[in-house]
Amino acid sequence: MASKDWRKSVVYQIYPKSFNDTTGSGEGDIRGIIDKLDYFTTLGVDYLWLTPVYESPMNDNGYDISNYYEVNPQFGTKADLEELLEKAHARGLKIMMDIVINHTSTEHHWFVESRKSRDNEYRDYYIWKDGTYDTPPTNWESKFGGNAWAYDEDTNQYYLRLFDITQADLNWENEDMRRDIYEMINYWIDFGVDGFRFDVVNLISKGEFKNSEGPGKEFYTDGPKVHEYINELNRNTFGDKDIMTVGEMSSTTIEHCLKYTNPERNELNSVFNFHHLKVDYPGGEKWSLANFDFLELKKILMEWQVAMDEGGGWNAIFWCNHDQPRVVSRFGNDETEENRLLSGKMLAIALHGLKGTPYIYQGEEIGMTNPGFNRIDQYRDVESLNAYSILREEGMDASLILDILATKSRDNSRTPVQWDDSRNAGFTEGMPWIEVSDKYGEINVARALEDGDSIFYTYQKLIELRHELDVLTYGSVKPHLMKDDDLFVYERLYEGERITVMANFRNKEVPYPENINAEGEVLLSNYADRKNVLRPFEAMMIYGQNN
Ligand code: GLC
Fold it and tell me: N or C terminus: fewer CB in 10 A for the chain?
């Protein structure tokens, strides 16, 4: 019997290091997730995605894997992971693992071997090229700053590292390497996991190694053999199994994402793209202070929604993850408690009516905000610390950099989950690895659960609707009022059913839109009644007929 359609699922993302600590180490662990399983059943999600828990020196918090087969002792043991799977499955919850196959840690034994000599059997598992002592093979930039090549004195060559210097890019041209990767993925399938999130998987196929006018992305993004490799990965691992997959796609295009997710091509189920989360990067510059461009946000979201729908592709839909600042501080308003609650619910309703698989990042469901760090020693993230030193070297004022980090740093989403108003927000008995936001007295899970009107219950209701209503899963997407400066409005249409979503992104009253079919039953709203205007951050989801 076919299992429930995966397209109806909602995924909850866990960043284990900041989730729940049961040992007092100051870092979250797998047992901490087991302890909270009832919380997920209350929320109603279907899958839990765990960011990497494998052995790792943790220079990039686990995205630098040194052993794909072992659990990092800081998170617990394999027995803990087994127990998590068992107890999750008993509750009908599925577990999705994060797989990083674009690179490994330089501490992975393949790399340790590879760097020993030019004729080592693992040499070719990575990308080694000649340069001269002070001129790397190409001028490509690392995503974490600096040149993308690291010089290795012993063998007098450079290895490619698109991310940190301790994250060496794997050479997908090498068949043995690919075979080893498939074997590893099959190990986790046999272990009993239910899905995979593939980290920056559209970067695995490198094209030509040439200098670029820019950072070099055109040479390795959606590269020449990427579809071939992903198809091969699919056929050798999860392809014929009940495994949900999502690929993280860096700087990708709709055209490629239609290919990645077209079921007939046997690649992946769904994709994350990030174009809608760059609407506050003026001129493409992340390290800047800027308000978000609302018209651009709508344009990008809707372009992807319509094109993926019409082309038979499938999006992951999300505002937040461990690499993004908190959405309520970013596209909402956290200046007052009232605005935080209204805009947190508005953002949830605006997103969860879209077509695709919704992802909720830990703490989003209670409206966690950016913590407002204002000293560099509060930061832990390698990307943020690199950015700080590079911008300082370029002469930027330290206080301006701190203001920028406070809105853009990945650490904004990595502060511990605020469970209650006890010490350290109930996250740990020890010393948290990164500071707990000082807003935890007001914003915490215990409080959200007690208050029937909290953001949590908006998410809970949205998940319930996603499970119940086919129109939310299969309905086509019809955007409206694309030029309107304040409102985000769209319809979903399916076999005579209609959902209308209306969201006011502004902290002001705006006229009720004309010529929008908003007849029907209000399924969900963040105000108790309806008026002939849309109040600050007012949002609603309406169910009616399509005629
Ligand atoms: C992805 C991850 C990010 C990580 C990077 C390198 O973008 O989400 O956290 O730093 O890949 O693995």
Answer: N
CA of 17 to the centre of ligand 1 (A): 15
Query: How is domain 109-169 classified at the CATH fold level?
Result: Oligo-1,6-glucosidase; domain 2 (3.90.400)
**Ligand 1 pocket check for 163: Cβ under 6 Å:** yes
Q: Residue 126 pLDDT more than 90?
A: yes
Three-state DSSP class for residue 494 = strand
For domain 6-104+175-374+414-461, the CATH superfamily is Glycosidases (3.20.20.80)
Among protein residues, the one whose CA lies closest to atom 5 of ligand 1: 63
Average pLDDT over residues 246-272: 98
How many Å lie between the centroid of ligand 1 and the Cα of residue 381?
11
Task: List helix spans (H) across 3-158.
Answer: 30-34, 37-43, 78-90, 109-114
Measured from the CA of 383, which atom of ligand 1 is nearest? 10
* Number of DSSP helices (H) and strands (E) in the chain, helices first: 15, 22
**Residue 2: per-residue pLDDT:** 39
Distance 407 CA to ligand 1 centre (A): 19
pLDDT of residue 521: 96
* 15 Cβ closer than 6 Å to some ligand 1 atom: no
Return the beta strands (E) in 382-529 as ranges.
476-480, 487-494, 497-504, 510-511, 521-525
Residue 1 pLDDT > 60: no
How confident is the model at residue 55, as a pLDDT?
A: 98
